[in-house]
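Need the bound structure for tryptophan, inputs here:
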Amino acid sequence: MKKTILTGLRPTGNLHLGHYFGAGKNWVKLQDDYNFYLEIADVQALTDNFNNPEKVRVNVFEITKDLLAIGLDPKKVHFFIQSKIPEVAELTVFYSNLVTVSRLERNPTVKNEIAQKKELFGNNGESITYGFLGYPVSQAADITAFDGELVPVGDDQLPLLEQCREIVRKFNSIYGEVLKEPEQYLSNVSRVRGLDGNEKMGKSLGNAIYLIDDEETIKNKVMNAVTDPNKIKKDDPADPEVCMVYYYHKLVNNNQENLNTVCNECKAGARGCVQCKKELIEKMNEFLKPIQEKRKYYDENPEEVVKILEDGTNTAREKAKEQMAKVRKAMKIDY
Ligand code: TRP
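Answer from helper R.:
Posting the output first, comments after.
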């Protein structure tokens, strides 16, 4: 019996290299060995985009196409839409009795997000909705509705997983051993830095390269990437380890010999940054080409994408129904 993996994404924008190297690439490897549920978390996306439903709707399809383009195989992965699984909403309601408001307010991920919102929108506590504060409860339902055992997520999501585990323990202690406590699937993939040298690549930070970026866009972005600030003239020696151009060379260039050349020439002052960027643009386009070709296929065949989501959602729904029956029985509401 294969173990069940469950993970999710909020459909709020296209995938960028941070998503790919920080998560997606690893998911592609996992799909062979696990029973893999992949949730397009539109309900969760609405918690802070409730006034922009069109954005969420468009990105359900955008993100699914991006995920297919990187090589996730719909024969192996159940792609499903959160809002099409009413059991998730139902479980959320029942779990909401098992968690206190103060516990949610203390959740580090939620706390961080609230702090970010305050930074963006001013010190307006009232902008935090009940739905937003409660999304960790909903995420616990996401995982347990499908008996998720392993959850491959980054460290920023760990407090949400811990919250889920607490809910599971509480549920089991009151209603009997029904739910499994999920664990983080640890992998050695790490966060990808932005073109500007920021520790994180993100849409709101404006420092991301998207999988769908065309050649012109890539060129403009790479040409503006941060290099060693101490290198003034073309033939000054520089430190590749502080240069984002070298950093991206390492990500997208598999040719070790070529990488060594880039590194050594940089240190020796034997390569100018403009030349180095041009080479990176070429490598970046080479890297993205197969992904974009695959993506193009799905752009041209949108009905296939719809079918993939329908099939995955049906499979997921069956699983959630089974799970819900157990939960209802344990809670003595199986009338
Ligand atoms: N909160 C996750 C994120 O913002 C997305 C998500 C929704 C998720 N449901 C999930 C992740 C269930 C893991 C498991 O990236």
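Comments: Residues 61 and 306 are 8 Å apart (CA to CA). The mean pLDDT is 94.
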